[in-house]
Design goal:
This protein is mostly helical. Helix content is about 80%, strand content about 0%. Helix 10 runs antiparallel to helix 13 and helix 14 (about 375-400) runs antiparallel to helix 15. InterPro entries: Atg22-like, ATG22/LtaA_families, MFS_trans_sf.
Length: about 425
C-alpha cells in the first residue's frame, strides 16, 4: 500500500524529530559541553593536565575537542552514501534512522559518566553522539519527499526547525538553572549539574524520537532476495550518483549549498570563539548569545518559508545569502558587546532561514516519485558535513597564518559570494522554474 501523502499525523511526527534531536546541537555541540570538556578532559596528577594522550599522541584537550568534530563529520561523509544505498535497496530506511538515533542518544547518556580525568569517555561519547545525530538526520530528511507534496515542503521544513529551536531552548534553560541556581536542586555541584544536563539530552532525544519512529512509514525492499544487500547498496549508490551528476540543476544547487553552508556552519560553530577571544566576552554573555540565535531563528525559518512561496526558493536563497554577506561584513567591524548581540540577532534570523529553505529546495529538486530518497539525501549530507569540516579548518588556518580572526571573517564573505555564482544559473533553468514557479 502506497504511503498517503500529507497525512497530518505523519507530517507532525516527522517534524517532531527536530524537537527530539536538536537538544544535542544546542547543549552538547554549542553551549554546555564545549565549556565543560576542557575542564574535565585532563590528565589527573600531571604538571600539564590540559595535555592528554590519545592513541599515542600528546594533544591539548581543545585540539582533541576540535579533532573529534572533524573525525565525526568525516566518518559521516564517508559512510552515509553507502549506508543510504543499502537502506534504499533493502527498504530499511527507518531502521537505519532508529539505529543512529539510539547511537546518538545513548552516547549522550554515557557522557553522564564523564567526570574529571575520564577523557576517553568524554571524547568517544562526544564523537559518537555527533555520528548518531548526523546519521539519523540523513534518513530523517529523506522522508520529506515521501510523506508530503512539494507545496508543503517549505512550511513543513520550517516547522521542523522551529520545533527544534523551541525544544532545545527549553531544555537548555532548564539545564542552565542547575548550573546558575544550584540551590534549587539541593546544592548540586557544577560538575554534576553539567553531567546531568548531558543525561537529560540523551533521555529527551531517546523518548521524543519514539513519536516519529512510530508514525513514519516503513519502506519496501527493492528485491525479494536480500542476501547481497551490500552489493545492492553499491548499485543504488552508483545509480543515484549517475542521476545526480547528470542533473545540472541538482549539481549547481549542491555546489552552491556546499559553499553557503560552509560559511553558515563555520559561523555557528566558531561564532562563540570570536566573542570570547576577539571581544573577550564573559561566559554568560556567550550563553545569552546562543539562546538569542535560537529564538530569532524561529521567525527567520517561517519568514523565509513564506518568502519562498512569494518569489520562489532560489530567489529566496539568493536574498538570504546576500544578507549573510552583509552580516559577515558587519561582523568584521564589531567591537562591543551590544553590537555583538545585534550581530547574533541577524545571524539567528538568517540561520533558521537558510537551513529550512535548503532542505526544502533540495527535496523539490529530487525527481518526482523518486524512491531512492535516502541515497539522494546522502549527497546533500556529504556536502553538509564536508563543508563544515573544510570551513572550520579554513577559518583556523587563516587565523594561524595571519594571527587575525577578523580576516577569517572576510574570507567567509568571499565564500558566500561564490555560492551565488552557482545559484544564478538556476534562475534561468526552465526545469527549475517548473518546480517552484
Amino acid at each position: 500500500m502506497e504511503q498517503q501523502l500529507n497525512d497530518k499525523k505523519t507530517l507532525n511526527a516527522w517534524a517532531f524529530y527536530d524537537w527530539a534531536n536538536s537538544v544535542h546541537s544546542l547543549t552538547i555541540t554549542s553551549a554546555i559541553f564545549p565549556i565543560y570538556f576542557p575542564s574535565a578532559a585532563i590528565t589527573l596528577g600531571s604538571t600539564t593536565p590540559g595535555i592528554i594522550s590519545i592513541l599515542g599522541f600528546e594533544l591539548s584537550n581543545t585540539v582533541v575537542f576540535s579533532y573529534s568534530i572533524s573525525v565525526a563529520f568525516f566518518a559521516l561523509a564517508i559512510l552515509m552514501p553507502f549506508l543510504s544505498g543499502i537502506a534504499d535497496y533493502t527498504g530499511s530506511k527507518k531502521s537505519f534512522m532508529r539505529f543512529f538515533c539510539y547511537l546518538g542518544s545513548f552516547s549522550c547518556i554515557a557522557l553522564f559518566f564523564f567526570s574529571k580525568g575520564h577523557y576517553y569517555i568524554g571524547t568517544l561519547g562526544f564523537l559518537f553522539s555527533i555520528i548518531g545525530w548526523g546519521g539519523s538526520m540523513v534518513f530523517y530528511n529523506s522522508f520529506l519527499p515521501e510523506i508530503a507534496t512539494p507545496d508543503r515542503f517549505d512550511r513543513l521544513s520550517a516547522k521542523g526547525f522551529t520545533l527544534g529551536y523551541i525544544g532545545s531552548v527549553l531544555l537548555l534553560v532548564q539545564n542552565l538553572t542547575m548550573l546558575l541556581k544550584p540551590e534549587w536542586y539541593g546544592g548540586i555541584g557544577g560538575e554534576m549539574a553539567a553531567r546531568v544536563s548531558f543525561l537529560t539530552v540523551g533521555l529527551w532525544w531517546l523518548l521524543f524520537a519514539q513519536i516519529p519512529l512510530h508514525y513514519l512509514p516503513d519502506s519496501k525492499a527493492k528485491e525479494k532476495d536480500q542476501n547481497q544487500w551490500w552489493l545492492g547498496g553499491f548499485k543504488e549508490l552508483s545509480k543515484v550518483f549517475k542521476e545526480v551528476t547528470a542533473n545540472i540543476e541538482i549539481k549547481n544547487f549542491l555546489f552552491s549549498f556546499f559553499l553557503f553552508n560552509m560559511g553558515a556552519q563555520t559561523v555557528m560553530y566558531l561564532g562563540a570563539l570570536f566573542g570570547s577571544q576577539e571581544l573577550h566576552l564573559p561566559e554568560d554573555a556567550l550563553i545569552i548569545t546562543i539562546l538569542l540565535i535560537q529564538l530569532v531563528a524561529i521567525p527567520g525559518a517561517y519568514f523565509c518559508a513564506r518568502l519562498s512561496g512569494w518569489i520562489g526558493n532560489i530567489k529566496a536563497l539568493g536574498l538570504i545569502v546576500l544578507v549573510w554577506i552583509f552580516v559577515c561584513a558587519y561582523a568584521y567591524t564589531v567591537t562591543s558587546q551590544f553590537n555583538f548581540y545585534l550581530l547574533a540577532t541577524a545571524i539567528g534570523f538568517v540561520m533558521g532561514g537558510i537551513q529550512s529553505n535548503s532542505r526544502a529546495t533540495y527535496a523539490k529538486l529530487c525527481p518526482k516519485g523518486e524512491k531512492d530518497t535516502a541515497s539522494y539525501f546522502s549527497f546533500y549530507d556529504v556536502c553538509d558535513r564536508m563543508s563544515t569540516v573544510i570551513g572550520t579548518f579554513m577559518f583556523g588556518l587563516v587565523i594561524q597564518l595571519t594571527g587575525n580572526m577578523r580576516i577569517s571573517i572576510l574570507v567567509l564573505v568571499l565564500v558566500f559570494g561564490a555560492s551565488l555564482l552557482f545559484l544564478l544559473p538556476l534562475l534561468k533553468s526552465p526545469k527549475a522554474k517548473a518546480i517552484w514557479g
